[in-house]
Amino acid sequence: xxxLISIRDLNADEILQLLALAESLEKNPAQISxxxxxxxxxxxxxxxxxRMSFESAMKRxxxxxxxxxxxxxxxxxxxxxxxxxTRILARYSDIIVIRHPLEGAAKYVSEQVNIPVVNAGDGAxxxxxxxxxxxYTIKKAQGKLENLKLALIGDLKYGRTVHSLAxxxxxxxxxxxxxxxxxxxxxxxxxxDLSNMKVKFQEKEKLGKIVNEVDIMYVTRIQRxxxxxxEEYEKVKNAYIISADLLENAKDNMKVMHxxxxxxxxxxxxxxxxxxxxxxxxxxxxxxRQAILATLLGEAK
Length: 301
Ligand code: CP
Description:
By secondary structure, the chain is an alpha/beta fold. It contains ten helices and nine strands.
């Protein structure tokens, strides 16, 4: 593993190795030291969890962090290109973690520099480290990854986390319900890829009884910032709201996940139920990102 740009670059064995390392690091973080290694966190887009869990992961393994949060105060404001900015930061660091609004930006950066690059989200395309922490979370919750029934709910068009997650789970024989408004369906190229991989899925507009059938409800925010037309957002912004009473007949071991941030799609009364798992999911980001950093920096044992 040289970079982490797309979840599709990893096979099932490589995914399972990362999950095993994350589990081992959660139990014993002292086994790996990244002392004197520097991570450049380059975030052209807003982030709380991804940036800070990568920073926490690096620091807890003894490493250092430099970076930028938005472009304010950097020479991007003077017109410096993405290529030049990242070529320079590659001389100041050992690994680059980048979030950028343009699809393909992380891959482009990986072609400009000779240190590992992690895609921390490129537009509506991919968010592979999120998918790996999602798999880690699902395995912890269900004890396995194979043969699970999952509902992916909300903005399946612009939501990069669901794009990556669908591919990440594909080798483990999942059964998906893709629940979205018509205008926010999973992109057809992804549906075609899943069909070619013989993954079972159904597209639905209504949640209905699906809530009582699935092992995982993976809820997503309607991605307001990616809508070209504000009116279109207004039409779908309240499409799905998961509340505690909706979960009354859910399976005992069902877990509600969400990459966060949430707006209104999961009401806070769900937080106190046994189904809520999104805060644990966010915490798992640290262990999985430690595993990713150690692996890409050649320190995984
Ligand atoms: N899950 C996720 O990507 O969250 P942030 O946008 O806060 O990083």
